[in-house]
Amino acid sequence: MKHTSPRPLQTLLALAIALGSACGVGPAWSQAAKEVVTQDPGGTYGENLRRLVYDPFTKETGIKVLTVQEARGGPRVKAQVEAKRTEWDMSFIFDQEVRLLDPYLAEIDYKKLSPEAQKTVASLPKEAVRPKGVALQVIGVALVYNKEAFPSKKYPKTWADFWNVKDFPGKRCLPQWSRFVFESALLADGVPADKIYPVDFDRALRKIAEIKPHVVKWWLTNSQAPQLLLDGEASVCLSYTGPVARLKKEDANAPLELTWDQAFTYYDFFSIPKDAPHYDAALKLLSYRLDAERAARVAEATSVALPSPRVYAAANPKLRDYWTNSPEVEKKAIKWNADFWGAKAPDGTTNEEYAQQKLNQLLAR
After folding, report:
1. CA 291/CA 120 separation, integer angstroms
2. Does residue 338 contact residue 165 with C-beta atoms inside 8 Å?
3. Global confidence as pTM
4. pLDDT above 80 (res 267)
5. Which one of 8, 193, 299, 343 is most buried, by most CB atoms within 10 A?
6. Res. 29 pLDDT band, cuts 50 70 90
7. What is the C-alpha separation between 281 and 17, in angstroms, rounded?
8. Alpha-carbon distance 334 to 357, whole Å?
């Protein structure tokens, strides 16, 4: 899935489905339609959702799925609800936003989901199921390197190695946002994984300043890091794992490799906005996406997994090596702390906004 923001990742889905009058919810002006609006990322990911989810759903239910690409779902949901004109039925919400947007989201009636979907929900990690959001994606961020940049075959495995340009020479690339970069810096500075939260901003910034001269690119889109590595412009990068997984699926001999040690995982949630015009239709579409076999086909095609062991078990073993819901990743990766980054900073902004401002200042120097 494509993420394009220095703020909480800007690859979002805008789903729109207008259900017919049988739905019985939402404003009267919309009840006659058999459509729904839901967020979609576009690109190849969106094409796969259309092929594997939306079109089959429409064929089975008669409910047409309209997709709207939106850079960021949370602010739009808030604006729609405040204006008492909710237009979307499902929205892609960042992990920390599920809590921040609580007044603007509807509770999900999990008992109305299909029996198959309820089994998948029951298999999800506790933190992936909330009253007003369910995680349909688990995203990985890891240290990725080009093996050809290290002919000695001594490869970087930790963030301390990433910062060690003497023993692991070459340019680096990092995302141009605070999340993950601050945590990586602290790990490189010797902070144990279970002690990185709450983040020591000043300590992290000092460490980031050390690596800054060696960073060839502060990237903004998730395709940039793998491309920089393939082009030989960088030898090691902090990168989303999805593009690497897709690359390895297409070409097993691609020189890129990643390590799950000290990698980060986090959830992307789907929520129903408050006063959604077609609440029941949204539950039907959610049920459709939570079918384990169908979710496995989506993950096989996109390399973006739903965080359920049922989905992992239903997938082709040859296609799930780099999935972020594998048992190996669960053991090694660090769960990104959305509660910390979404909490209030001393200046009244969120910790993420505060850290982003500090990082921007450092990069501008």
Report:
1. 7
2. no
3. 0.81
4. yes
5. 299
6. very low
7. 7
8. 24
Q: Which two tokens stand for residue 156?
A: 């970087």
Strand bridging mode 90-94 / 129-130: unpaired
Burial code (b: 16+ CB inside 10 Å, e: under 16) for 94-122 equals bbbbbbbbeebbbebebeebeebbeebbe
Give the C-alpha separation, 127 to 267, whole Å.
9
More confident residue, 69 or 341: 341
The 3-class secondary structure across the chain, one letter per residue, is CCCCCCCCCCCCCEEEECCCHHHCCCCHHHCCCCEEEEECCCHHHHHHHHHHHHHHHHHHHCCEEEEECCCCHHHHHHHHHHCCCCCCCEEEEEHHHHHHCHHHEECCCHHHCCHHHHHHHHHCCHHHEECCEEEEEEEEEEEEEEHHHCCCCCCCCCHHHHHCCCCCCCCEEEECCCCCHHHHHHHHCCCCHHHCCCCCHHHHHHHHHHHHHHEEEEECCCCHHHHHHHCCCCCEEEEEHHHHHHHHHHCCCCCEEEEEEEEEEEEEEEEEECCCCCHHHHHHHHHHHCCHHHHHHHHHHHCCECCCHHHHHHCCHHHCCCCCCCHHHHHHCEECCHHHHHCECCCCCEHHHHHHHHHHHHHHC
Query: Which band of pLDDT confidence, cut at 50, 70 and 90, is reported for residue 71?
Result: low
Contact 190, 210 (CB under 8 A): no
Compute the Cα dihedral for 205, 210, 211, 213 and give only its sign: positive
What percent of the chain shows pLDDT beyond 90? 71
Whether 129 contacts 147, CB under 8 Å: no
Contact, 38 vs 67, CB < 8 A? Answer: yes
Phi, psi of 147 (to 5 degrees): -60, -30
Report the alpha-carbon distance of residue 5 to residue 365 in Å, rounded: 21
